[in-house]
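We modelled the chain as a single entity of 278 amino acids. Its sequence is:
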Amino acid sequence: MARVRRYVAGRSVRYFTGILAVALGAAILLMLSPYVIEMPGPTQDVLGSVKEGQVIAVDGKDVSTHRDSGKLLLVTVSASGVPGYPIVNAQAVWGWADPQVEVTPREAVVPVGQTADEYQQKVDADMTGSQDTATKAAIAYLKAHGAELGVDADELGNLKVTMHVDSIGGPSAGMMYTLGLIDKLTAVQETGGKTIAGTGTISEDGTVGKIGGIRLKMLGAKRDGATWFLAPESNCAEVVGHVPDGLRDVKVATLDEAYQALVAIGAGKADGLPHCTA
């Protein structure tokens, strides 16, 4: 006992203060964090299939669908720290150290006080609305351009479209769903066998809208083999300077611009397509 007392007495106050500081720091790192961390999420080929069936399933009397040898990738962001997916401060610190992760105060991402159920309902509603609008936008486009695309507009009235990507939420895949449906209903090989990614909301009149997380989405597109990326014009300020090597961005503001860009890329005539500029 005397030896223990001498050992403790021989230790300086600074030593024990250091131990306390380490313990306090560890406790703080393990506390729930007020931040959201986002990173490149999975991509999905809208021309492909998932376990539920075709990502874009088309059914209708006398309606023909066509296969395309390329891929049209919708891109996502994986978020933690949102309601229902808590993180600790240590994860936020790790995020700040990783250039492929974005760390944002939670109140800038979701409303204060939003519950996990409310968050999921919002995400699901956004995705359902996005898919419905994409179908309407694609049908409207095909009716307007059916003659040049070889589509009988009269057959589109019987069209039933079901989209299967239930694990992905939010509205930002709207443009890619629309392009995918148009691709499936036309005999043209729009992609030319290439892997083309993109993002953007879609409105029924064909306007392509701004989305969040585009820098991370471009990283995910490049990771999964895309060489082209269709970006909303309204996101260009976030695109410039952040396009990964080997990925070429194309600025689009409307569905027609996006479709014409897709066709040009597939035909190998895309050199003149517009980049985002500062």
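As a brief sanity check on the tokenised model: The longest strand covers residues 35-45. The two ends are 73 Å apart (CA to CA).
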